[in-house]
Design brief:
This protein is of the alpha/beta class and about 280 residues long. The chain is built from 10 helices and 11 strands. The strands form 3 sheets. It has a 6-stranded parallel beta sheet. It has a 3-stranded parallel beta sheet with strand order 3-2-4, sandwiched between helices. The chain is globular and about 50 Å long. The structure holds NADP nicotinamide-adenine-dinucleotide phosphate. NADP nicotinamide-adenine-dinucleotide phosphate binds near residues 191, 194 and 195. NADP nicotinamide-adenine-dinucleotide phosphate binds near residues 171, 193, 195, 264 and 268.
Length: about 280
């Protein structure tokens, strides 16, 4: 029987509806509109689309978004000066610097310069540390999207062996840290490009999460029959957007699977809105 679909698009619409109500209640009771400052440096077309989508999402739920679009040749000092201004601006609750930034700017320096209480991507070392300790201020958007997608489809992680392929700071590592927390209670294996006999490891997964950025990399032979497969990958190909999982073959083996597009991506976007509301609540009380 083909796998059931983990429909991220539908779920994201539902969560946006819930958030719109929460934002309206917050605005009515506190007289403050949650506000996200988005910083885009240069004219990378994919980044422009991402930022446009994030701003549209904000509008849909009543969050104000302010765009700071700086030229490609912006220096690190100029970007840090803008971030310092946004850190000090009490009307801004969340700050998002769209990555990647141009090569003259050091990503880690920029991310560390954001006030941790406004760091709605949860990339600052203080927020990463809080996640590891199980005391998060914000949950990172893509990992939280993955967990919410499972949770809202009543797919438990408790006692499940989750194999994550990919150890990036944005997806693999924070997801692993979240999954081992008490209450989530997964047994986690993290794989990467140096993992020996990857198919033997992925076949152990009750839940397989793939985030490597290689089109159709995971095939049916790499998946245990009945496993849940979450495809985080987004790859632009001549056939359009595809994930890291070869969907047609794997959906014959898995019990549940995310489509690409329409799986994890929409949930990632919604989690940014949640974090912005959380930041506004913490700032206003
Ligand atoms: P990244 O920083 O490029 O990291 C890729 C990871 O995959 C690395 O840990 C790398 O291992 C591992 N890897 C690469 N080739 C491998 C192989 N053949 N076997 C095993 N592991 C391999 O990627 P990322 O930022 O996490 O993004 C991954 C994918 O997710 C991309 O397609 C990206 O577009 C997508 N993404 C989607 C969302 C969403 O909302 N849906 C959000 C973020 C990212 P090493 O560490 O050993 O190099």
């Amino acid at each position: 029987m083909p796998a059931q679909i983990l429909d991220g698009k539908l779920l994201a619409r539902q969560i946006r509806g819930e958030l719109a109500e929460e934002v309206a209640e917050f605005v009515a009771s506190r007289g403050v509109t949650p506000t996200l400052a988005a910083v885009l440096v240069g004219g990378d077309p994919a980044s422009e689309v991402y930022v446009r989508n994030k701003r549209r999402d904000c509008e849909q739920v009543g969050i104000e978004s302010r765009l700071h679009h700086l030229p490609e040749e912006t220096s690190q000092a100029e970007l840090l000066a803008l971030i310092a201004e946004l850190n000090a601006d009490r009307s801004v609750h969340g700050i998002l610097v769209q990555l990647p930034v141009p090569p003259q700017i050091a990503t880690d320096v920029v991310l560390e310069s954001i006030d941790p209480s406004k760091d709605v991507d949860a990339f600052h070392a203080e927020n990463v540390g809080r996640i590891v300790q199980g005391q998060p201020r914000f949950l990172p958007c893509t990992p939280n999207g993955v967990i919410e997608l499972l949770k809202r489809n009543e797919l438990t992680t408790v006692g499940q062996h989750v194999v994550i392929v990919g150890r990036s700071d944005i997806v693999g590592k924070p997801l692993a840290n979240m999954l081992v927390q008490r209450g989530v209670d997964a047994t986690v294996t993290v794989c990467h490009s140096r993992t020996r006999d990857l198919p033997a490891v992925t076949r152990l997964a009750d839940i397989l999460v793939v985030a490597i950025g290689r089109a159709n990399f995971v095939t049916a032979e790499m998946v245990k029959p009945g496993a849940i497969v979450v495809d985080v990958g987004i790859n632009r190909t001549d056939e359009g957007l595809v994930g890291d999982v070869e969907f047609a073959g794997v959906s014959e083996v898995a019990s549940w699977i995310t489509p690409v597009p329409g799986g994890v991506g929409p949930l990632t976007r919604v989690m940014l809105l949640l974090n912005t509301l959380t930041a506004a609540r913490a700032a206003v009380g």
